[in-house]
């Protein structure tokens, strides 16, 4: 494997930590009150060369097909959800993430995939009175290499996209 | 003869006026069919009740001259002002002072559903109260000073408020404060907008006496029972609505539609009735450039099948954005003609994505029944019931790893590290001290109970420095060994005998680094999440401590040598004991799903599991509890 040198790895760890905090902040805010933008946080549906398809989304044991299905599920089954994030941690997963052909080049210190784990509480159904649940979530994020071809206007484009997501109520 | 509304909600024909069915309270109607509530006091405070179907109708002369309180009620619901009275008392208090607030539209709160108005009111009252209290304290005034906004209203970018005159200086001092990230300007103005107009000119009093009933009549005229069509086209040309002054100002117009929808909610009281009686709505010819003024159509008729938005002023699909994800059952949508800038194909493709059951678009068929069937049921969504674990293993690789891993973590961490970690593996742990507890737990929080975990806890919410985060990431054999050997010892419940205490999921994960270098882009591996509990055992004393809940995510990939595995990434979260009820599957699935789940949890055969569920109302939790009670006395044949 082309392992980036230690300087770059160190930079990656630092960038990953900041990115994980920023990403979780905007993602859980979107689930709360910017539902229109939820799709923009996910990799587009795609079958990889090994035959596996992404994204992988598991919501309390329910397999959800892709970002559109996820947004649809949210609006039909959890019309309200407020997330309070208590813990965020993250590791760099692949330090030299493969770029698809034609993708916009990314500096080596930003070209990695990462695993993010969040822990917190979510209030569903309605503000203040709704049931409060403890949840745990694992996300694998990959750099957004869709560039301008990604369609979304630049301001709405996420730097990182969810490739794998496992969400669970834990209490 | 106009079409009738559903029979059991028939209106009083002799007076050509509907009589709203009151939900509660002693009700009778006067000779005109107007509602009168026995013994109800009349006045502002009484009629302030929000959202109620009732209104306070001054009996004397009500037919031609709505009483003052009725007028206020009308104003509040559908009148031309959207000012909101928030405190009892005469609204045109001579000793009121008025302020104009600007700059708040730039705040973060402006994206709230109400445009941030509620937050702004709360903010202004709080800030002004603090200021007022400070001033009072400084002048040895012991009374409680609470600033209340008596009246407020949004007009464009400006927000107008009224307060008692003696509170005005405190309000002035809020000028320049930051409200949700935006500095706001507060300036006193001579007049509250709209106060200069006499009430009678704001609404031209109509002979029928009640706007509510007018709307009901209107609804009746516009409803075609045979076609199940609600025709809301060309509203501005409706002579009766125009005579009411309903379209004199933008704000009246914005109140009209929600009020009409409220009447619809009263007339068609259940989702079934709405689905049955109103299948089509046309909003053609209403100069709409956005659905915002009529957005309440969606919550009122969520199951609508046919919608006509033709001949409006839509220039972009963004104008319809608010109805994306609404109208799940929409079958036919008409948007042409409209001055859309998007090309027709683009528009059609996008709208077809929004409405998976849409078969007809602008009067031509765009999907067959089969297309719709395929699209709407690729994977049954199971609503959002908590389902059993998903475990997508291959050749039991992940399963065997997990068994070894849990055993090794409890009994010999050094051997575990030798087996499953290398120099490029990462481990970190964190503790969530704020998590919810299992409500039935008898464990109480004790001071310092998390000391053994807190020092190295890698929680970015608390550890915000680059250095702090770096030293809490354990990378490579030496660092991971050090961390493993500093953490308390653990005793996890058995996977074989206590499976219900575990929730283990596994999905495939691509792009896992390949240590051999053969596949620089990465290889396929597994993402494994473990949820469960362990008994903490003190490293120094060997004493058993509390039972903790934990969550752990491991990315499993191939090791350097053929046939070896490694935990590329291993992240542990520890929290107070939270039990395992959260991941018991909710019983929304078919009976066989529940039987299978009980069998998995208990180890009983499917037959015994079904019997156990039959005896316990098919309730999984009850059945499992019953199983635990009876476990010892069950015959060997009960188990798999």
From TrEMBL, chain A:
InterPro entries: NTF2 (IPR045875), NTF2-like_dom_sf (IPR032710), Nuclear_transport_factor_2_euk (IPR018222). GO terms for biological process: nucleocytoplasmic transport. Transmembrane segments: none annotated. Gene3D superfamilies: 3.10.450.50. Coiled coil: none annotated. It comes from the Eukaryota. Residues 19-169 form the NTF2 domain. This is NTF2 domain-containing protein.
Automatic annotation (TrEMBL), chain B:
One of its GO terms (molecular function) is RNA binding. Pfam families: LRR_NXF1-5, NXF_NTF2, RRM_9, TAP_C. GO terms for biological process: poly(A)+ mRNA export from nucleus. Involved in the export of mRNA from the nucleus to the cytoplasm. This is mRNA export factor MEX67. It comes from Lineolata rhizophorae. Residues 589-640 form the TAP-C domain. CDD domains: UBA_TAP-C. Keywords: Cytoplasm, Leucine-rich repeat, mRNA transport, Nucleus, Repeat, Transport. InterPro entries: Leu-rich_rpt (IPR001611), LRR_dom_sf (IPR032675), Mex67_RRM (IPR040736), NTF2-like_dom_sf (IPR032710), NTF2_dom (IPR002075), Nuclear_transport_factor_2_euk (IPR018222), NXF1/2/3/5-like_LRR (IPR057125), NXF_fam (IPR030217). It comes from the Eukaryota. Residues 397-574 form the NTF2 domain. SUPFAM superfamilies: L domain-like, NTF2-like, UBA-like.
